[in-house]
Design brief:
Blueprint: E1 8-12, H1 17-28, E2 32-37, H2 40-53, E3 58-62, H3 68-80, E4 87-90, H4 106-134, E5 138-142, H5 155-174, E6 181-187, H6 194-198, H7 203-208, H8 218-230, E7 239-242
Parallel strand pairs: 1-2, 1-4, 2-3, 4-5, 5-6, 6-7
Bound molecules: NADPH dihydro-nicotinamide-adenine-dinucleotide phosphate and 2-hydroxyethylsulfonic acid (8X3).
NADPH dihydro-nicotinamide-adenine-dinucleotide phosphate (NDP) binds next to helix 1, helix 4 and helix 6.
C-alpha cells in the first residue's frame, strides 16, 4: 500500500548521496518534494529531471542548514505558501577530517557540529510547531552506526551522531501527546561523497574506504526511509539500523584482498 503519494516531503542535503536517492525514490512513490542544500545548481538539475519523469511538485532552495536565518526564511516561505511538509528528512550532514582529538582541526569540529547537530535542530525547530498546529507530521533523522559505537579518530563525528540519536529520542518524548512521529535511519558504510568530503577532496583516500567489500548504495538507504515513512499512522519505526552484509559493526568488516 502506498501511503506516500501526495505527501509533501522536505529533504535537507538533497543535492547528493542519500538525500538525492531519497528524492528520486519518494518522487517515484508520488511525493511532492521540497529539496534543500547549498549547491543550488545540483538541486535545479535534480528537480528538472524529477519533474520530467514524475507528476509531482518539486520546490528547491539554497539553504545552508548552519545558517539559522536562512533556515527560518526558507521555512517561512513554505508556511506562507501553505506548503508545510508532512515529512521532514533531516539528512544534511558530513564528516570533516579523521584525526586524533589531540591533532584535530577545530574548523573541522565546528563544521560537523554546526551541520549535523545545530542544523538539524534549526530545521526541526522551524517546522515542528507547524506540524503540531496541523496535527500531522513525521521527522526522520539520518543518524549513523557512528552514533552507536565510537571508532578511533571518529571522536567529533561520532559525538554528533550520538547527539542525533539523543535528539531523536528527545524529540520523540517531547512530542508525546501529538500525532507527530519521530524516527531515525542509521546506516553503516554507504558509498556516497561522504568520504570525499571527509578527506577534503582526496579521492584516492576516499576510495580506499569502500575497497574489498560491497557497501550500501544510497538507494538502499532510500528504500529503508521509504519503509519508515510508508508505515501506517499508528506505527512508528523508531530506529532502523542498516548495514552492508559485509559489515557486522563499526570494526568487523569482511574486506577481501584485491
Ligand atoms: P554526501 O556528501 O553524498 O551528501 C551530503 C549532503 O548533505 C549533500 O547534499 C550536501 O549538499 C548536504 N549538506 C552538507 N552540508 C550542508 C549544509 N551545511 N547545509 C545544507 N546541506 C548540507 O553524503 P551522504 O549522502 O553519505 O550523507 C548524508 C547523511 O548520511 C549525513 O548526515 C551522513 O552523516 C549520513 N550517513 C552517511 C553514511 C555514509 O557512509 N555515507 C553512513 C551513515 C550516515 P551541499 O554540499 O550541496 O550543501
Ligand atoms: C558514516 C559511517 O562508519 O564512516 O556515518 O562513520 S562511518
Amino acid at each position: 500500500m502506498n501511503r506516500i503519494q501526495g505527501k509533501r516531503i522536505l529533504i535537507t542535503g538533497a543535492s547528493a548521496g542519500i538525500g538525492e536517492a531519497c528524492a528520486r525514490l519518494l518522487a517515484e512513490e508520488g511525493a511532492d518534494l521540497v529539496l534543500w542544500a547549498r549547491r543550488l545548481e545540483r538541486l535545479q538539475a535534480l528537480a528538472e529531471e524529477v519533474r520530467h519523469e514524475r507528476d509531482v511538485e518539486v520546490r528547491i532552495a539554497r539553504v545552508d542548514v548552519r545558517d539559522r536565518a536562512a533556515v527560518e526564511e526558507a521555512a517561512a516561505r513554505l508556511l506562507a505558501d501553505e506548503a508545510v511538509p508532512d515529512v521532514l528528512i533531516n539528512n544534511a550532514g558530513l564528516a570533516s577530517g579523521l584525526a586524533h582529538v589531540q591533532d584535530g582541526d577545530p574548523d573541522d569540529w565546528d563544521r560537523m557540529i554546526d551541520t549535523n547537530v545545530r542544523g538539524l535542530l534549526y530545521v526541526s525547530r522551524t517546522l515542528l510547531p507547524e506540524m503540531i498546529r496541523l496535527g500531522r507530521g513525521h521527522v526522520v533523522n539520518i543518524g549513523s552506526t557512528a552514533g552507536h559505537m565510537v571508532y578511533p579518530k571518529g571522536n567529533v563525528y561520532n559525538a554528533t551522531k550520538y547527539a542525533v540519536r539523543a535528539l531523536t529520542e528527545g524529540m520523540n518524548l517531547d512530542l508525546a501527546g501529538t500525532p507527530i512521529r519521530v524516527s531515525s535511519v542509521d546506516p553503516g558504510f554507504v558509498r556516497t561523497e561522504f568520504s570525499l568530503v571527509r578527506f577534503h577532496g582526496d579521492r584516492e583516500r576516499a576510495d580506499t574506504v569502500y575497497q574489498g567489500f560491497r557497501p550500501l548504495a544510497p538507494a538502499d538507504v532510500a528504500e529503508a526511509v521509504r519503509f519508515v515513512i510508508n508505515s501506517p499512522e499508528h506505527v512508528n519505526v523508531f530506529n532502523l539500523v542498516l548495514l552492508p552484509t559485509a559489515q557486522r559493526n563499526v570494526y568487523v568488516l569482511d574486506r577481501k584482498e584485491a
